């Protein structure tokens, strides 16, 4: 740019911006004009000035920030124009020109009056002054069409999704629902993978700034990564995008892991919601057992919270992080008529933003489903083992009876209890170790990769929960048609029936135990009375005992009920083993083998509306087992 053109531009700016007083002499007006001219010229020509940054991008950043605050739609257009300005070789002191325009447009003290007059210049004067600037005059013809086209393409390609579509998806996930790529709007000059990287960089920077609260890092990285790019240099552009992609993803994962403790929260969910912390769960169940036997409406939150604190202090959970323990809570689910505390109790682990983009609402529901299922199994195990210990202790005392029928009933009862303990133990081992621990190991392998992104974390966690619910017998069996009969064949329904039979059997065993204690007490009292009569020689030895007939009449009812419940339990287990034997998943077939390792059960295949080939395969498999 020639010196006279710069001088003319400065003179025009001073004439439009600095008002003149018609009462001033000509020499005073000329002196004021010369003073302003020298100030502007010193700003432009000064090679080093403490008021102006030597960074070529500083002036652009100032203007860009102002545009983002006042008119965000023009920020992208300004970036395109500034890129073209940097590539023009005929202009010198580009940063100084931009900084001068910014200083003129944005005074550091807006309340300071203008020289000689408080009158403010109008907007058209600004536009007229800027229109004479060499930047707009030389760069407009080259860049107007190209910049407008690229601006529209990128603005439409990387846009926020429609609100109606977000609601249809069940919006609320700021990572997945806030932005999306419109594939048909991607410019033809870039590939799909390249566009995906650019999109993830922008989405990650937005997430780091707004959700993670690390706007300072975004600003510093943007300044450090700002470089001059020549038109058509696609190889350099791809290299820079790859570098920015790796840096941004690494920073995001570092924030999620160290600042927001994502991996600690996943470990806590496994320990407490998936019952991995065995001593804590055992102590919690023991302390809550008497309280949860009461109706659900009689449960109080302060009681549950107190028992939860007791279980934490009495187990290794006390050494866990306070950040983890404060998120753990005990509450009651929505209750229905007839529910007891066991049916409604649940543990809850509260997740805050931004970790909730990984552990979503759907993930919380899956964790709740798995916890309720495992809690039911733990409850049955606790009840059956308590009854077993009571029976084994009583066998050496109050349960001793000379009646062969009573002795045989207790022998068969202890056998069925042993079967139930074996069943629930194998089921619990399978879910906790073969399913949850195995899936946890796979999750760790996926999230510990060096190139792992937040999307990879979300996908790995989703697959982790899907594996647990499917292999953990919580997912319904997939069929080509559905009916009421098919609903009854789901593993969840089958296990629910088996667990209910086990609880009913436990209640009947407790009834038999009470009858045996009562019978033992009456026999002891009869022996004492008989001895007393014999010594005093008052009454005959054949005097009947009062009340013995009523106690004896209860035994056949208890005996029949125990026999019926034991047979029903075995039938349900055989049906379950038959279904597991035909599962394509190896781990689920292994569960059936572990439950029936000594072939005490004969697996029964339930009749289903399957394809002819499936029925033929089932018959041939059954024949092979018979031959063996």
Structure description:
The chain is mainly α. The chain folds into 4 domains: 152 residues, no CATH class; 80 residues, no CATH class; 100 residues, no CATH class; 258 residues, no CATH class. It is built from 25 helices and 4 strands. The chain has a two-stranded antiparallel ribbon with strand order 1-2. Helix 3 runs parallel beside helix 5, helix 18 runs antiparallel to helix 19 and helix 23 runs antiparallel to helix 24. The longest helix is centred in the last third of the chain and has 46 residues. It is elongated, with a radius of gyration of 40 Å. The C terminus is likely disordered.
Layout: helices, strands, pairs:
Blueprint lengths: L2 H15 L8 H20 L12 H13 L4 H12 L7 H12 L17 H9 L2 H24 E2 L3 H6 L5 H4 L2 E2 L10 H19 L4 H11 L8 H26 L2 H12 L4 H15 L8 H13 L8 H4 L2 E5 L8 H4 E5 L11 H34 L9 H44 L6 H18 L12 H5 L2 H46 L11 H34 L4 H10 L16 H16 L1
Antiparallel strand pairs: 1-2, 3-4
Helix pairs in contact: 1-2, 1-6, 3-4, 3-5, 4-7, 10-11, 10-12, 14-15, 18-19, 18-20, 18-22, 19-20, 19-23, 19-24, 22-23, 23-24
Descriptive terms for the model:
single chain, 628 residues, mainly alpha, two-stranded antiparallel sheet, 25 helices, 4 strands, 68% helix, 2% strand, elongated, disordered C terminus
